[in-house]
Amino acid sequence: MDSFTDYLAEITGGASQAAIARVADLDQSNVSRWRKGAKPSPEAVIRIAHHYGRPVPEALYRAGLVSEETAKRLRVTDAPGLSSYPYPALLRELGRRLAHAEHTPHTIQSPADYGEEPSPDDYDLAAGTADGPIDRPRS
């Protein structure tokens, strides 16, 4: 696994320590300590993930706060909708996915093709067979 600072560079497009500290609502010295191997707080990781439009379990795993298995099992039920993400984060994610698609030899058909854990609801939604809100249990 890469370091958390490698992950930050990847998701922020190389933003400065000061910019990352502002997003996490911390002093810049905290971000500097992460470069030296200190672990960030879960709260800071979650704020960063939300700001940059990344899945919280992924960010917690990359910060070394949860195992990969735990990150895969975590399901954030109260995740914010896309409209709550800043436009730059949405555009970065769109760019990342488009770049990935250019290098993918097959048609992308599911979230798993992006390395994301698919939900059974994703397939129902794509097939047009979803009954009402996705998060509601079916009877």
Automatic annotation (TrEMBL):
<feature type="compositionally biased region" description="Acidic residues">
    <location>
        <begin position="114"/>
        <end position="124"/>
    </location>
</feature>
<protein>
    <submittedName>
        <fullName>Helix-turn-helix transcriptional regulator</fullName>
    </submittedName>
</protein>
<feature type="domain" description="HTH cro/C1-type">
    <location>
        <begin position="16"/>
        <end position="59"/>
    </location>
</feature>
<dbReference type="InterPro" id="IPR010982">
    <property type="entry name" value="Lambda_DNA-bd_dom_sf"/>
</dbReference>
<dbReference type="InterPro" id="IPR001387">
    <property type="entry name" value="Cro/C1-type_HTH"/>
</dbReference>
<dbReference type="Pfam" id="PF01381">
    <property type="entry name" value="HTH_3"/>
</dbReference>
<feature type="region of interest" description="Disordered">
    <location>
        <begin position="98"/>
        <end position="139"/>
    </location>
</feature>
